[in-house]
Amino acid sequence: MKVIIAGAGIAGLAIAWRLAQAGADVEIYDRGLAGRGATWAAAGMIAPGAELKDESEELARFARASRAAWPDFAAELEAESACSIGYGEPGSLILACEGARAQLLEQRARQLVSSGVDAEFLTPAVLRRRENLLSSALHGALHIPGDAQVDNRLVGEALRSALSRRNVAVHENTEIRGLLIAENRVRGVMCSSGAVPGDAVIVASGAWLNEFAGSAALPPVTPVKGQMVAVEPPAGTKLPRQLLWGEDVYLVTRGSRVLIGATVEDAGFDTSVSTEACSRLVAAAARIIPALAGWRVSEMWAGLRPRTPDGAPVIGACAVEGLYVAGGQFRNGILFAPAVADAMRRIVLTSQPVAEIRSFGPGRFTAG
């Protein structure tokens, strides 16, 4: 079976890896460089405990299942690629900057514990003992020890290496301009380099899902811009061990730097960065770690998150036979990657519905 994948972000690469492991003939096409879009721009959190708020129960279950799959996914990927991806389980601290927020987090801690999730509320004194760089003005934090992280940039490189070892062709800087469809069945794609026949096409092109001809067959996805900053402290500074979440900012320690994110902007496909956004992010982070205001900004970048109208991912078969979509992961592309890859492997190779993605099907946007 020849499968063509449009998009070489973490979703497309992980899907290709799983399909190649199962014996499929796979080729990937990307308009840019593999792993250098939203995957490169992310912060690598694998944190359903911190990130899930008002999501549906179906989405929460999918997120938790994917989180549970990450340790084995990471170990297998490192073994097959011979690349480290920096997987770790530091846990999350969801911080309270005000007393009212602390009360809400205490209540949420009790709810999580009652539902079987490992969580606890930390008083300000305990919080400061855990992370001594944190502001003394904080009113406590919800601690979720099960949240994890990975170096998302290394994940992209590892997946590329694993695919190379399986002789999967990854065509970079090759734009897909349309779908080849005959008698309501996909027959391949039309690329900038010419027609490419295939038995199945998986569109995993992130924010660009609707940007090539024939997109009427695909569900709606729009780009949401996110700017991020990395700062470096003075030598010898002991950086936070855990993922830190404020109400409008998060902080992730990555090696000798702290990543600060992220803006949420409806700006089309613009990926420029601004000093104004940099200043806002650093100022918000400094309310959590006051000393950070004086640290050196070492990098600033922007990425485009793919969002559907209802905020949930879109995963599954389209109305055109042989056409599949894996998109709309919005802020959870890294978290969802193992579950998306496994689900797409099953649905493409067996043509059978997959129960855990039933509510994420593309048909929900066209049903009358």
How do the strands and helices of this protein lay out in sequence?
Layout: E1 2-6, H1 10-21, E2 25-29, H2 38-41, E3 45-46, H3 48-51, H4 57-81, E4 92-95, H5 99-114, E5 120-122, H6 124-130, E6 141-144, E7 148-149, H7 152-165, E8 169-171, E9 176-182, E10 185-191, E11 194-197, E12 200-203, E13 222-232, E14 243-245, E15 250-254, E16 257-261, H8 275-286, E17 296-307, E18 314-317, E19 323-327, H9 333-350
Parallel strand pairs: 1-2, 1-12, 2-8, 4-14, 12-19
Antiparallel strand pairs: 3-7, 4-6, 5-6, 9-10, 10-11, 13-16, 13-17, 14-15, 15-16, 18-19
Helix pairs in contact: 1-7, 1-9, 4-7, 4-9
Characterization of the model:
There is one protein chain. The radius of gyration is 21 Å and the shape is globular. It folds into 2 domains: about 1-80 and about 150-220 and about 310-365, FAD/NAD(P)-binding domain (3-Layer(bba) Sandwich); about 90-150 and about 225-305, 2-Layer Sandwich (D-Amino Acid Oxidase, Chain A, domain 2). The chain has helices spanning about 10-20, 40, 50, 55-80, 100-115, 125-130, 150-165, 275-285, 335-350, and strands at about 1-5, 25-30, 45, 90-95, 120, 140-145, 150, 170, 175-180, 185-190, 195, 200-205, 220-230, 245, 250-255, 255-260, 295-305, 315, 325. With about 375 residues, the chain is an alpha/beta fold. The strands form 4 sheets. An 8-stranded mixed β-sheet has the order 5-6-4-14-15-16-13-17, with helices on both faces. Strands 8-2-1-12-19-18 form a 6-stranded mixed β-sheet.
